[in-house]
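Bench notes, afternoon.
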Amino acid sequence: MVKKNPIHIFRKLKKSGIEIKIKKCKYIVNYPSSVFEKLPKSLHRVFADSIAYISTWHLPLSFNVPIIYHFPPPPIESVFFKILLYSIPMNIFENKDVKTSSLLRDFYNANIQTEYKSLNFFYSGKKVKRKLKNNAVIIFSFGKESLLTLGLLEELGVNSFPIFVKEPQSIFENRHKKKLAIKFLSQFGKKIEFFPLSVGKLREETGLYWGWDIILSQYVFTLLPYYFYHQAKYVFFGNEQSCNFYLKDKEGYYVNPVFEQSAPAMQILQNISKLFFISTHIGSLVEPIHEIFITYILHHRYSDLGTFQMSCFSEGETAKKRRWCGACEKCARMYIFFKALRISPERVGFYNNDMLSLKKERFYVLFNKGVESSYGGSGLGRDEQLFAFYLAWKNGTRGELIEKFEKNYLTEAEKKKGYLAKEYFGIHSSLSLPSALRRRVLKIYESEKSHVSKFLILLGLSI
Protein backbone atom coordinates (compact mmCIF):
# COMPACT_ATOMS: atom_id res chain seq x y z
CA MET A 1 0.00 0.00 0.00
CA VAL A 2 1.46 3.35 -1.11
CA LYS A 3 1.37 5.95 1.65
CA LYS A 4 0.23 9.30 0.28
CA ASN A 5 1.86 12.54 1.36
CA PRO A 6 -0.40 14.37 3.83
CA ILE A 7 -1.63 17.95 3.51
CA HIS A 8 -0.11 20.24 6.17
CA ILE A 9 -2.27 23.11 7.45
CA PHE A 10 -0.77 26.09 9.26
CA ARG A 11 -2.49 29.14 10.67
CA LYS A 12 -1.16 32.51 11.81
CA LEU A 13 -2.79 35.42 13.61
CA LYS A 14 -2.65 38.69 11.69
CA LYS A 15 -3.40 42.20 12.92
CA SER A 16 -6.97 42.05 11.64
CA GLY A 17 -7.63 38.40 10.90
CA ILE A 18 -6.23 34.95 10.25
CA GLU A 19 -3.84 33.57 7.65
CA ILE A 20 -4.22 29.93 6.61
CA LYS A 21 -1.29 28.33 4.80
CA ILE A 22 -1.63 25.16 2.71
CA LYS A 23 1.49 24.14 0.81
CA LYS A 24 2.62 27.40 -0.81
CA CYS A 25 -0.81 29.00 -0.87
CA LYS A 26 -2.03 31.52 1.69
CA TYR A 27 -5.64 32.44 2.41
CA ILE A 28 -6.44 35.49 4.52
CA VAL A 29 -9.72 35.80 6.43
CA ASN A 30 -9.64 39.53 6.98
CA TYR A 31 -11.90 41.78 9.07
CA PRO A 32 -12.14 45.55 9.40
CA SER A 33 -9.65 46.39 12.17
CA SER A 34 -12.39 48.07 14.21
CA VAL A 35 -14.35 44.78 14.14
CA PHE A 36 -11.54 42.32 14.84
CA GLU A 37 -10.22 44.29 17.82
CA LYS A 38 -13.58 43.78 19.57
CA LEU A 39 -12.96 40.03 19.68
CA PRO A 40 -11.19 39.58 23.05
CA LYS A 41 -7.51 38.76 22.67
CA SER A 42 -7.91 35.81 25.04
CA LEU A 43 -10.00 34.18 22.28
CA HIS A 44 -7.85 35.04 19.26
CA ARG A 45 -5.79 31.84 19.14
CA VAL A 46 -8.68 29.44 19.56
CA PHE A 47 -10.70 31.46 17.03
CA ALA A 48 -7.84 31.16 14.53
CA ASP A 49 -7.61 27.40 15.12
CA SER A 50 -11.35 27.07 14.59
CA ILE A 51 -11.41 29.12 11.37
CA ALA A 52 -8.57 27.03 9.95
CA TYR A 53 -10.39 23.80 10.83
CA ILE A 54 -13.85 24.69 9.46
CA SER A 55 -12.30 25.98 6.22
CA THR A 56 -10.27 22.85 5.49
CA TRP A 57 -12.03 19.82 7.03
CA HIS A 58 -13.04 18.58 3.55
CA LEU A 59 -9.58 18.54 1.95
CA PRO A 60 -8.80 14.88 2.85
CA LEU A 61 -12.04 13.92 1.07
CA SER A 62 -11.29 16.09 -1.95
CA PHE A 63 -7.74 14.79 -2.43
CA ASN A 64 -7.96 11.39 -0.71
CA VAL A 65 -4.93 12.08 1.48
CA PRO A 66 -4.44 12.49 5.26
CA ILE A 67 -4.35 15.96 6.79
CA ILE A 68 -2.07 17.33 9.52
CA TYR A 69 -3.00 20.46 11.48
CA HIS A 70 -0.14 22.36 13.07
CA PHE A 71 -2.25 23.69 15.92
CA PRO A 72 -4.37 22.18 18.74
CA PRO A 73 -7.79 20.55 18.16
CA PRO A 74 -10.28 23.43 18.44
CA PRO A 75 -13.35 22.93 20.66
CA ILE A 76 -15.55 23.94 17.72
CA GLU A 77 -14.64 20.63 16.03
CA SER A 78 -17.12 18.68 18.16
CA VAL A 79 -19.92 21.13 17.28
CA PHE A 80 -19.27 20.90 13.56
CA PHE A 81 -18.71 17.15 13.58
CA LYS A 82 -22.36 16.30 14.24
CA ILE A 83 -23.64 18.84 11.72
CA LEU A 84 -21.22 17.43 9.15
CA LEU A 85 -22.21 13.85 9.93
CA TYR A 86 -25.85 14.57 9.13
CA SER A 87 -25.15 16.99 6.26
CA ILE A 88 -22.77 14.92 4.14
CA PRO A 89 -25.46 12.42 2.99
CA MET A 90 -27.14 15.26 1.06
CA ASN A 91 -24.67 14.39 -1.71
CA ILE A 92 -26.78 11.36 -2.65
CA PHE A 93 -29.28 13.79 -4.18
CA GLU A 94 -26.59 15.53 -6.23
CA ASN A 95 -24.84 12.36 -7.37
CA LYS A 96 -26.97 9.26 -7.94
CA ASP A 97 -23.90 7.01 -8.10
CA VAL A 98 -22.97 7.41 -4.42
CA LYS A 99 -24.48 5.88 -1.30
CA THR A 100 -24.93 7.29 2.19
CA SER A 101 -22.89 4.44 3.65
CA SER A 102 -19.88 5.14 1.41
CA LEU A 103 -20.02 8.88 2.14
CA LEU A 104 -20.10 8.26 5.89
CA ARG A 105 -17.29 5.70 5.59
CA ASP A 106 -15.09 8.17 3.74
CA PHE A 107 -15.82 10.90 6.29
CA TYR A 108 -15.10 8.51 9.17
CA ASN A 109 -11.83 7.32 7.65
CA ALA A 110 -10.68 10.85 6.85
CA ASN A 111 -11.21 11.88 10.48
CA ILE A 112 -9.34 8.83 11.76
CA GLN A 113 -6.32 9.92 9.69
CA THR A 114 -6.48 13.58 10.75
CA GLU A 115 -3.60 14.58 13.05
CA TYR A 116 -2.92 17.60 15.25
CA LYS A 117 0.73 18.52 15.86
CA SER A 118 0.12 20.48 19.04
CA LEU A 119 -1.41 19.97 22.48
CA ASN A 120 -4.40 22.00 23.50
CA PHE A 121 -3.97 25.08 25.63
CA PHE A 122 -6.13 26.89 28.13
CA TYR A 123 -8.16 29.85 26.97
CA SER A 124 -10.36 32.09 29.05
CA GLY A 125 -13.25 34.38 28.33
CA LYS A 126 -13.20 36.12 31.70
CA LYS A 127 -12.66 39.51 30.11
CA VAL A 128 -15.44 39.08 27.54
CA LYS A 129 -18.16 41.70 27.80
CA ARG A 130 -21.45 39.91 28.23
CA LYS A 131 -23.71 42.96 28.05
CA LEU A 132 -25.53 42.81 24.72
CA LYS A 133 -27.77 45.33 22.98
CA ASN A 134 -31.04 44.88 21.14
CA ASN A 135 -29.11 44.26 17.92
CA ALA A 136 -29.24 41.47 15.37
CA VAL A 137 -26.80 40.31 12.70
CA ILE A 138 -28.55 38.89 9.63
CA ILE A 139 -26.83 36.37 7.36
CA PHE A 140 -28.14 38.28 4.36
CA SER A 141 -28.61 37.26 0.72
CA PHE A 142 -31.43 39.41 -0.75
CA GLY A 143 -33.48 36.20 -0.77
CA LYS A 144 -37.08 36.28 0.44
CA GLU A 145 -36.19 34.86 3.87
CA SER A 146 -33.48 37.40 4.70
CA LEU A 147 -35.60 40.30 3.39
CA LEU A 148 -38.56 39.15 5.47
CA THR A 149 -36.28 38.81 8.51
CA LEU A 150 -35.08 42.38 7.97
CA GLY A 151 -38.67 43.61 7.68
CA LEU A 152 -39.73 41.80 10.84
CA LEU A 153 -36.81 43.19 12.85
CA GLU A 154 -37.53 46.72 11.71
CA GLU A 155 -41.16 46.33 12.80
CA LEU A 156 -40.12 44.81 16.13
CA GLY A 157 -37.70 47.66 16.85
CA VAL A 158 -34.56 45.51 16.74
CA ASN A 159 -31.50 47.12 15.15
CA SER A 160 -30.32 44.94 12.27
CA PHE A 161 -26.92 44.58 10.64
CA PRO A 162 -27.18 42.59 7.38
CA ILE A 163 -23.98 40.88 6.19
CA PHE A 164 -23.60 39.25 2.79
CA VAL A 165 -20.75 36.73 2.56
CA LYS A 166 -18.99 36.93 -0.81
CA GLU A 167 -18.01 33.50 -2.09
CA PRO A 168 -15.10 33.88 -4.56
CA GLN A 169 -16.64 31.32 -6.94
CA SER A 170 -19.98 33.19 -7.14
CA ILE A 171 -18.91 35.98 -9.47
CA PHE A 172 -22.26 36.72 -11.12
CA GLU A 173 -24.19 36.58 -7.86
CA ASN A 174 -21.76 38.95 -6.14
CA ARG A 175 -22.00 41.43 -9.00
CA HIS A 176 -25.82 41.50 -9.03
CA LYS A 177 -26.07 41.81 -5.26
CA LYS A 178 -23.56 44.62 -5.11
CA LYS A 179 -25.81 46.59 -7.46
CA LEU A 180 -28.83 45.77 -5.31
CA ALA A 181 -26.95 46.85 -2.17
CA ILE A 182 -26.12 50.26 -3.67
CA LYS A 183 -29.76 50.79 -4.60
CA PHE A 184 -30.90 49.46 -1.22
CA LEU A 185 -28.69 51.96 0.64
CA SER A 186 -30.04 54.80 -1.46
CA GLN A 187 -33.68 53.83 -0.90
CA PHE A 188 -33.65 52.74 2.76
CA GLY A 189 -30.44 54.19 4.17
CA LYS A 190 -29.47 50.66 5.26
CA LYS A 191 -25.97 49.44 4.49
CA ILE A 192 -25.44 45.82 3.49
CA GLU A 193 -21.98 44.78 4.68
CA PHE A 194 -20.05 42.65 2.16
CA PHE A 195 -17.63 40.18 3.75
CA PRO A 196 -15.20 38.54 1.28
CA LEU A 197 -14.39 34.92 2.19
CA SER A 198 -11.14 33.99 0.47
CA VAL A 199 -11.15 30.43 1.86
CA GLY A 200 -14.19 29.77 -0.33
CA LYS A 201 -11.62 29.08 -3.08
CA LEU A 202 -10.94 25.77 -1.32
CA ARG A 203 -14.42 24.42 -2.06
CA GLU A 204 -14.68 21.81 -4.82
CA GLU A 205 -16.07 23.08 -8.12
CA THR A 206 -16.89 19.61 -9.50
CA GLY A 207 -17.49 16.08 -8.25
CA LEU A 208 -19.20 15.85 -4.87
CA TYR A 209 -18.66 19.56 -4.18
CA TRP A 210 -16.89 18.95 -0.88
CA GLY A 211 -16.76 22.09 1.25
CA TRP A 212 -20.25 23.34 0.38
CA ASP A 213 -22.00 21.02 2.84
CA ILE A 214 -22.19 23.38 5.81
CA ILE A 215 -21.38 26.83 4.43
CA LEU A 216 -24.07 28.58 6.49
CA SER A 217 -22.65 27.11 9.68
CA GLN A 218 -19.23 28.31 8.56
CA TYR A 219 -20.66 31.77 7.97
CA VAL A 220 -22.25 31.99 11.41
CA PHE A 221 -18.92 31.13 13.02
CA THR A 222 -16.69 33.21 10.74
CA LEU A 223 -18.76 36.31 11.49
CA LEU A 224 -18.26 35.89 15.26
CA PRO A 225 -16.17 39.10 15.62
CA TYR A 226 -19.18 41.06 14.35
CA TYR A 227 -21.31 39.74 17.22
CA PHE A 228 -18.86 41.29 19.68
CA TYR A 229 -18.53 44.45 17.60
CA HIS A 230 -22.30 45.03 17.40
CA GLN A 231 -22.91 43.54 20.87
CA ALA A 232 -25.57 41.53 19.05
CA LYS A 233 -28.22 39.77 21.06
CA TYR A 234 -29.28 37.79 17.97
CA VAL A 235 -27.97 36.21 14.78
CA PHE A 236 -30.54 35.14 12.21
CA PHE A 237 -30.49 32.74 9.26
CA GLY A 238 -33.36 32.43 6.79
CA ASN A 239 -34.18 28.79 7.54
CA GLU A 240 -37.84 28.03 6.87
CA GLN A 241 -40.11 25.17 7.97
CA SER A 242 -39.31 22.86 5.05
CA CYS A 243 -35.69 22.68 6.27
CA ASN A 244 -36.90 20.20 8.91
CA PHE A 245 -37.95 17.71 6.22
CA TYR A 246 -36.20 14.33 6.02
CA LEU A 247 -36.75 10.98 4.35
CA LYS A 248 -35.39 7.45 4.38
CA ASP A 249 -32.97 6.57 1.58
CA LYS A 250 -32.58 3.21 -0.18
CA GLU A 251 -30.19 1.98 2.50
CA GLY A 252 -32.53 2.91 5.34
CA TYR A 253 -30.72 6.06 6.48
CA TYR A 254 -32.78 9.10 7.42
CA VAL A 255 -31.49 11.99 5.32
CA ASN A 256 -32.29 15.68 5.49
CA PRO A 257 -31.16 17.36 2.23
CA VAL A 258 -30.49 20.62 4.11
CA PHE A 259 -29.74 19.41 7.64
CA GLU A 260 -27.61 22.41 8.65
CA GLN A 261 -30.66 24.63 8.09
CA SER A 262 -32.91 22.52 10.31
CA ALA A 263 -34.07 23.45 13.81
CA PRO A 264 -31.96 20.66 15.39
CA ALA A 265 -28.83 22.01 13.67
CA MET A 266 -29.59 25.56 14.85
CA GLN A 267 -29.88 24.23 18.38
CA ILE A 268 -26.40 22.69 18.02
CA LEU A 269 -25.03 26.01 16.73
CA GLN A 270 -25.96 27.67 20.03
CA ASN A 271 -22.76 26.06 21.34
CA ILE A 272 -20.72 28.55 19.32
CA SER A 273 -21.89 31.33 21.60
CA LYS A 274 -21.25 29.23 24.71
CA LEU A 275 -17.72 28.30 23.64
CA PHE A 276 -16.84 31.94 23.07
CA PHE A 277 -18.50 33.33 26.20
CA ILE A 278 -21.14 35.47 24.52
CA SER A 279 -24.87 34.85 24.90
CA THR A 280 -25.85 35.70 21.33
CA HIS A 281 -28.91 33.69 20.21
CA ILE A 282 -28.54 31.93 16.84
CA GLY A 283 -31.81 31.12 15.11
CA SER A 284 -34.37 31.88 12.40
CA LEU A 285 -37.45 34.09 12.58
CA VAL A 286 -39.00 32.31 9.60
CA GLU A 287 -38.74 28.75 10.95
CA PRO A 288 -42.51 28.49 11.65
CA ILE A 289 -43.61 29.05 8.04
CA HIS A 290 -43.12 27.64 4.55
CA GLU A 291 -41.60 29.33 1.50
CA ILE A 292 -44.85 30.25 -0.22
CA PHE A 293 -46.14 31.92 2.95
CA ILE A 294 -42.81 33.74 3.35
CA THR A 295 -43.22 35.04 -0.21
CA TYR A 296 -46.76 36.20 0.54
CA ILE A 297 -45.85 38.05 3.76
CA LEU A 298 -42.80 39.72 2.24
CA HIS A 299 -44.71 41.12 -0.73
CA HIS A 300 -47.90 41.86 1.21
CA ARG A 301 -46.57 43.38 4.45
CA TYR A 302 -43.16 44.67 3.34
CA SER A 303 -43.75 45.27 -0.36
CA ASP A 304 -40.98 47.87 -0.75
CA LEU A 305 -38.44 45.34 0.54
CA GLY A 306 -39.95 42.69 -1.72
CA THR A 307 -38.89 44.55 -4.88
CA PHE A 308 -35.25 43.76 -3.98
CA GLN A 309 -35.77 40.00 -3.92
CA MET A 310 -33.24 37.90 -5.80
CA SER A 311 -33.62 34.13 -5.43
CA CYS A 312 -31.44 32.71 -8.20
CA PHE A 313 -28.36 30.46 -8.24
CA SER A 314 -26.71 32.87 -10.74
CA GLU A 315 -24.31 30.19 -11.94
CA GLY A 316 -24.72 29.82 -15.70
CA GLU A 317 -23.78 32.24 -18.46
CA THR A 318 -27.43 33.38 -18.65
CA ALA A 319 -26.96 34.89 -15.17
CA LYS A 320 -24.16 37.18 -16.30
CA LYS A 321 -26.46 40.07 -17.13
CA ARG A 322 -29.73 38.87 -15.60
CA ARG A 323 -30.73 39.18 -11.96
CA TRP A 324 -32.91 36.10 -12.55
CA CYS A 325 -31.23 33.68 -14.95
CA GLY A 326 -34.45 31.85 -15.87
CA ALA A 327 -32.46 28.62 -16.10
CA CYS A 328 -32.37 27.18 -12.57
CA GLU A 329 -34.76 25.52 -10.16
CA LYS A 330 -34.82 28.55 -7.86
CA CYS A 331 -36.09 30.76 -10.66
CA ALA A 332 -38.70 28.14 -11.55
CA ARG A 333 -39.88 27.77 -7.95
CA MET A 334 -40.19 31.50 -7.34
CA TYR A 335 -41.92 32.12 -10.66
CA ILE A 336 -44.74 29.71 -9.88
CA PHE A 337 -45.00 31.16 -6.35
CA PHE A 338 -45.40 34.64 -7.83
CA LYS A 339 -48.09 33.43 -10.22
CA ALA A 340 -49.84 31.56 -7.41
CA LEU A 341 -49.98 34.68 -5.22
CA ARG A 342 -50.79 37.18 -7.99
CA ILE A 343 -47.43 38.90 -7.60
CA SER A 344 -46.02 40.35 -10.79
CA PRO A 345 -42.60 38.77 -11.49
CA GLU A 346 -41.61 42.06 -13.16
CA ARG A 347 -41.73 43.92 -9.83
CA VAL A 348 -38.63 41.99 -8.75
CA GLY A 349 -36.86 42.37 -12.09
CA PHE A 350 -37.93 38.93 -13.37
CA TYR A 351 -38.52 39.33 -17.09
CA ASN A 352 -38.10 35.70 -18.18
CA ASN A 353 -41.77 35.17 -18.90
CA ASP A 354 -41.37 31.74 -20.46
CA MET A 355 -40.88 29.85 -17.18
CA LEU A 356 -44.05 27.86 -17.88
CA SER A 357 -42.93 26.55 -21.25
CA LEU A 358 -42.20 22.84 -21.64
CA LYS A 359 -38.49 23.48 -22.06
CA LYS A 360 -38.42 24.67 -18.43
CA GLU A 361 -40.01 21.46 -17.13
CA ARG A 362 -36.71 20.03 -15.90
CA PHE A 363 -36.35 22.81 -13.34
CA TYR A 364 -39.55 21.92 -11.48
CA VAL A 365 -39.47 19.26 -8.78
CA LEU A 366 -43.15 18.51 -9.46
CA PHE A 367 -42.55 17.08 -12.92
CA ASN A 368 -40.64 13.79 -12.69
CA LYS A 369 -38.92 15.14 -9.57
CA GLY A 370 -37.15 17.79 -11.64
CA VAL A 371 -34.06 16.58 -13.49
CA GLU A 372 -32.19 19.79 -12.69
CA SER A 373 -33.86 20.60 -9.38
CA SER A 374 -31.25 20.85 -6.62
CA TYR A 375 -33.17 18.68 -4.25
CA GLY A 376 -35.34 17.06 -6.90
CA GLY A 377 -34.08 13.62 -6.07
CA SER A 378 -35.28 14.08 -2.51
CA GLY A 379 -38.74 15.32 -3.37
CA LEU A 380 -38.23 18.35 -1.12
CA GLY A 381 -40.79 21.01 -2.01
CA ARG A 382 -42.81 18.75 -4.29
CA ASP A 383 -46.17 19.21 -2.53
CA GLU A 384 -45.59 22.92 -2.04
CA GLN A 385 -45.03 23.21 -5.77
CA LEU A 386 -48.14 21.15 -6.44
CA PHE A 387 -50.10 23.65 -4.33
CA ALA A 388 -48.49 26.63 -6.09
CA PHE A 389 -49.44 25.25 -9.52
CA TYR A 390 -52.96 24.68 -8.25
CA LEU A 391 -53.28 28.27 -7.02
CA ALA A 392 -51.80 29.60 -10.27
CA TRP A 393 -54.30 27.49 -12.24
CA LYS A 394 -57.17 28.80 -10.07
CA ASN A 395 -55.90 32.33 -10.71
CA GLY A 396 -56.24 31.84 -14.45
CA THR A 397 -52.52 31.54 -15.21
CA ARG A 398 -51.92 29.74 -18.48
CA GLY A 399 -48.93 28.08 -20.14
CA GLU A 400 -47.69 24.72 -21.37
CA LEU A 401 -46.72 23.53 -17.90
CA ILE A 402 -50.05 24.68 -16.49
CA GLU A 403 -51.69 22.50 -19.12
CA LYS A 404 -49.49 19.57 -18.10
CA PHE A 405 -50.37 20.20 -14.46
CA GLU A 406 -54.07 20.27 -15.31
CA LYS A 407 -53.82 17.01 -17.20
CA ASN A 408 -51.62 15.03 -14.78
CA TYR A 409 -51.83 16.61 -11.31
CA LEU A 410 -55.07 18.58 -10.96
CA THR A 411 -57.02 15.61 -9.57
CA GLU A 412 -54.36 15.04 -6.90
CA ALA A 413 -54.31 18.74 -6.01
CA GLU A 414 -58.11 18.84 -5.69
CA LYS A 415 -58.07 15.86 -3.33
CA LYS A 416 -55.30 17.34 -1.17
CA LYS A 417 -56.21 21.04 -1.35
CA GLY A 418 -57.48 21.23 2.23
CA TYR A 419 -54.32 19.69 3.65
CA LEU A 420 -52.08 21.72 1.32
CA ALA A 421 -53.66 25.02 2.34
CA LYS A 422 -53.36 24.25 6.05
CA GLU A 423 -49.78 23.01 5.73
CA TYR A 424 -48.29 25.69 3.50
CA PHE A 425 -50.12 28.67 4.98
CA GLY A 426 -49.97 27.29 8.49
CA ILE A 427 -47.77 28.27 11.44
CA HIS A 428 -45.57 25.47 12.72
CA SER A 429 -42.64 24.90 15.11
CA SER A 430 -40.76 27.91 16.48
CA LEU A 431 -37.86 26.23 18.30
CA SER A 432 -35.22 28.63 16.98
CA LEU A 433 -37.14 31.83 17.72
CA PRO A 434 -35.75 33.72 20.73
CA SER A 435 -38.25 33.83 23.59
CA ALA A 436 -38.11 37.64 23.76
CA LEU A 437 -39.42 37.94 20.18
CA ARG A 438 -41.48 34.77 19.71
CA ARG A 439 -44.89 36.06 20.78
CA ARG A 440 -44.73 39.21 18.63
CA VAL A 441 -43.41 37.36 15.58
CA LEU A 442 -46.14 34.71 15.80
CA LYS A 443 -48.73 37.48 16.21
CA ILE A 444 -47.57 39.00 12.91
CA TYR A 445 -47.85 35.59 11.24
CA GLU A 446 -51.36 35.10 12.62
CA SER A 447 -52.33 38.51 11.25
CA GLU A 448 -50.97 37.63 7.81
CA LYS A 449 -52.69 34.26 7.98
CA SER A 450 -56.03 36.03 8.32
CA HIS A 451 -55.22 38.09 5.22
CA VAL A 452 -54.20 35.07 3.19
CA SER A 453 -57.42 33.33 4.30
CA LYS A 454 -59.43 36.02 2.53
CA PHE A 455 -57.31 35.52 -0.57
CA LEU A 456 -57.93 31.76 -0.48
CA ILE A 457 -61.68 32.17 0.05
CA LEU A 458 -61.83 34.02 -3.27
CA LEU A 459 -60.34 30.87 -4.81
CA GLY A 460 -62.77 28.57 -3.00
CA LEU A 461 -60.24 27.43 -0.38
CA SER A 462 -59.91 27.78 3.39
CA ILE A 463 -57.36 27.20 6.17
